[in-house]
Amino acid sequence: MKELLGGCRYIEFPRTTERSGSLTPVESFKDVPFEINRVFYLYDIPGGENRGGHAHQECHQLLIAASGAFDAKIDDGQNSQIIHLDRPYYGVYVPPGVWAEELNFSSGSICLVLASHPYEEADYIRDYKRFLSYAENLREGK
């Protein structure tokens, strides 16, 4: 798998496949590099719509295509990269300080998000220009 920017990385989850179906367990600190404190999922996304479009100051996230497919665009303030997700046993870890946007959802897709923190609006950076300044300060150790 290709190298990802900004501390992001692919994570492959264990899976068991039997005649009756497949199972993928996910555990905090074992399969995910943080304690999972919130789980949410995006679904029924109209064609052409994007989701995300923000960074976090503290919250770690893991994005999974639980069903269907979508692209995750990650941005560290200097470079961006698009990652295609289409398997429920692969995820992309997105650490704090990385801008992420989900786009190009296939029909019927579900984006499962595992998060290290409960929802807190103050943790979000939703303005891209503010994010660029924040990312520059991180690089400079401020």
TrEMBL record:
Q: Which InterPro entries match?
A: QdtA_cupin_dom (IPR008894), RmlC-like_jellyroll (IPR014710), RmlC_Cupin_sf (IPR011051)
> Ranges for the Sugar 3,4-ketoisomerase QdtA cupin domain?
8-135
Quote the protein name from its UniProt record: WxcM-like protein
- Pfam (any one): FdtA
Q: Which organism is it from?
A: Hallerella succinigenes
Look up the domain of life of the source.
Bacteria
